[in-house]
């Protein structure tokens, strides 16, 4: 009796039932949508400007403030420039600023946070007080203060965004280092004769890098918003540069006159890529979550 | 064997995990067993032999890459095919109570034991009204020997033993006919292990002929203390199903693997079984234990069926053991 | 001689886990330290292995008083100990393959030459196959990972072994196998052992003598009362 059953279970015809196909599908959908949108953004930013030999600055006063039409899918602005082209160039500038600022902030934040967490003691206390002091000032205010010290340009904005955003990375990295530091595998490394430097570089840093990288990716949209806010206030990039913040800023007047397109499309260009990046980062966070890994194994 | 009705009847239960790259891991293969009313069955085996996967399958908690075959009947309900809604509404807590592996992780850290017990009572029983819930929660705590004056504490204020009792109290609220204990003694010291298993045993006995316990453990001493019958799992298969008294006493286990496990105990020979258990992703065609077995020969290239109580071509016989001792 | 005298240790300044505990392990001796979970015996083990600085008390290692702990301790003193912890998952760097895990102390102390041979030799001793050595911690079972952790503890040929609940998560057969590896190593090298655990049967079988944690702290309290 048992014998036949045993054979049956291994027969190719055994009816296997699968688990969990349902909740995976929405997750995959979100991941795919995000990935597609991010790819589209990168494509638009990298490929379109060199390929399309159109002048984004081309002024056509006869066609100013035209609503969306087949000729100008996003309409035109108050001096008749094509808004689609302006948006793509604006995204290019905003993305550049966002990525540069996020990278700077992450490098600074990781270095500071890792040092504070790994060294501990008075170094940790001093560093974290500095972080607290920085955090107690509203980001935008601090950002405005920093930008105001320089002539308008790309780099002051990058510096301003980076200097206000490394704090959160430093906190995340420090917390991660502290939690790793109390694990027995660090004890084992110490007992195995590893120096302080070796413990930091071989065991602690690789452990926090995924978290730091994730924080960096999540910071790109944040930095883009920050840049747009500064530009909108007229403090960010020089007004002739087509950043998304500048586009919205210059469209304020027409919005009151009922022309919605010069505000809406640049706004969407900020929102959609940032959501897509956040969606991708969320999926990544699930991936590096060790609990999920152990769930898949036995 | 008795003629009492089975509470849980597992027939040909198999679980496979689909791994990236198309690999299939045979976590559980063709498990057949019953847990009868008033009985405690201990499922023992090494870590990674598939016993926790079996428990997850019974509770409907397998991860997304799992496949199952066979059936596990709890009353009239097949736990393997029941949908999540049925499992949540009629099975968990009501038909099958879970005594978890780590009570600290099982309890909500921000709420007192009393509020968690009351919530469970309200969810699982028709008890309504503040005073009634309060006394029902206290009764539930008493049943698990949880001191009533500790009810207003948070989980982190409890010792490991009390947290285990709190988790047991929660599992008992629904008065489920089947209790499933998944490694309930891991990390506890010997006294606590003894107390925990004694309490579980008491609940089975107190339920008269109505309750059954399936305890999954790698702790042989705990199994010996509590079990009526023992199922030994090796490499995803149940290789021996035996009466606990005969298994731990004379004539002893019949499968060479079970015998090796017992001989590894510090109060017996304290000798390990040579070698390592096989990978569940790459099991040999024949008997999975043969490479580590001193009785193996050519016959072992064929998979031995679980005939009667043991799946082995050369089982230890009750008589040889008696003769050896004499 | 590993001599812990009147050790007081803890993690917050004014609330030590235990006070005035003394324990001696002679060279080549195996001492079992028995106590319930959470009593502080693991902290004592970490103090003994130079991994946790006590608040007061002295530790004399082979006739030499220890003044510094963790990274501040001289490397020769630190590496005189091989340490195995309770939870293999937490005691293995999740990114290292088992080979690298075992070889890590050799690399950290600059003994790269011959490390491959040493790892192969130890892998055979603890019963790990070549296939397992190439995997990362999340791809092996608890028992296999603990075997690797024991190999790592032995790789520098320590004079002292500290096993903190080494077998609490393991099944009977793996427990017996690991204890046998430790005992074979001790028989070959004459290393001393401090085995911390909560299973009296196991410690009695394994060690030359078993000390009850309550006896250690109890005598300390009695001494305090007599003062």
TrEMBL record, chain A:
GO terms for cellular component: plasma membrane. InterPro entries: BP-dependent_transpt_permease, MetI-like, MetI-like_sf. It is found in: Cell membrane. Pfam families: BPD_transp_1. Residues 91-281 form the ABC transmembrane type-1 domain. The keyword Zinc does not apply. It is a multi-pass membrane protein. The chain crosses the membrane at residues 31-52, 93-119, 126-148, 264-284. Keywords: Cell membrane, Membrane, Transmembrane, Transmembrane helix, Transport. One of its GO terms (biological process) is transmembrane transport. It comes from the Bacteria. Belongs to the binding-protein-dependent transport system permease family. This is ABC transporter permease.
Automatic annotation (TrEMBL), chain B:
It is a peripheral membrane protein. The keyword Translocase applies. It catalyses: Ni(2+)(out) + ATP + H2O = Ni(2+)(in) + ADP + phosphate + H(+). It is found in: Cell membrane. Gene3D superfamilies: P-loop containing nucleotide triphosphate hydrolases. One of its GO terms (cellular component) is plasma membrane. GO terms for biological process: peptide transport. One of its GO terms (molecular function) is ABC-type nickel transporter activity. Residues 10-260 form the ABC transporter domain. Its EC number is 7.2.2.11. It comes from the Bacteria. It is an enzyme of class 7 (translocase). Keywords: ATP-binding, Cell membrane, Ion transport, Membrane, Nickel, Nickel transport, Nucleotide-binding, Translocase, Transport. CDD domains: ABC_NikE_OppD_transporters. SMART domains: AAA (SM00382). Signal peptide: none annotated. The complex is composed of two ATP-binding proteins (NikD and NikE), two transmembrane proteins (NikB and NikC) and a solute-binding protein (NikA). Belongs to the ABC transporter superfamily. This is Nickel import system ATP-binding protein NikD. It comes from Streptomyces griseicoloratus.
TrEMBL record, chain C:
The lineage of its organism: Bacteria, Bacillati, Actinomycetota, Actinomycetes, Kitasatosporales. One of its GO terms (molecular function) is ATP binding. The keyword Calcium does not apply. SMART domains: AAA. InterPro entries: AAA+_ATPase, ABC_transp_ATP-bind, ABC_transporter-like_ATP-bd, P-loop_NTPase. GO terms for biological process: transmembrane transport. This is ATP-binding cassette domain-containing protein. PROSITE patterns: ABC_TRANSPORTER_2. Residues 2-226 form the ABC transporter domain. Belongs to the ABC transporter superfamily. It comes from Streptomyces griseicoloratus. Gene3D superfamilies: P-loop containing nucleotide triphosphate hydrolases. Keywords: ATP-binding, Nucleotide-binding, Transport.
